[in-house]
Amino acid sequence: QILVDIDSVIDLFKTEGLDDRVDEGQMKVVNSRLYRVVRILEILGESINLLQTMTPSDFLNFRDVLINCLWVSKLPVSNAGE
């Protein structure tokens, strides 16, 4: 979702050109999409902070649950060491 929102903001600015002004309606769209990106990153950071409170053995027990989550399964993580 982060990449989709950032790409759409870039596309909005590309359509206006360098010399043109972006109209107020488009700036509201830009603002809301960038705000969503910021919120996603804040929540991601909070989630990582929560995981850091776990002991290594707690994390190993919890890891199987994480692997089944959609967002974790799309991360570029290799299982070659297992």
From TrEMBL:
Official protein name in the record: Tryptophan 2_3-dioxygenase
UniProt keywords, alphabetically: Dioxygenase, Oxidoreductase
Molecular function GO labels: heme binding; L-tryptophan 2,3-dioxygenase activity; metal ion binding
Biological process, per Gene Ontology: L-tryptophan catabolic process to acetyl-CoA; L-tryptophan catabolic process to kynurenine
PANTHER family registered for this protein in UniProt: TRYPTOPHAN 2,3-DIOXYGENASE
One Pfam family in the UniProt entry: Trp_dioxygenase
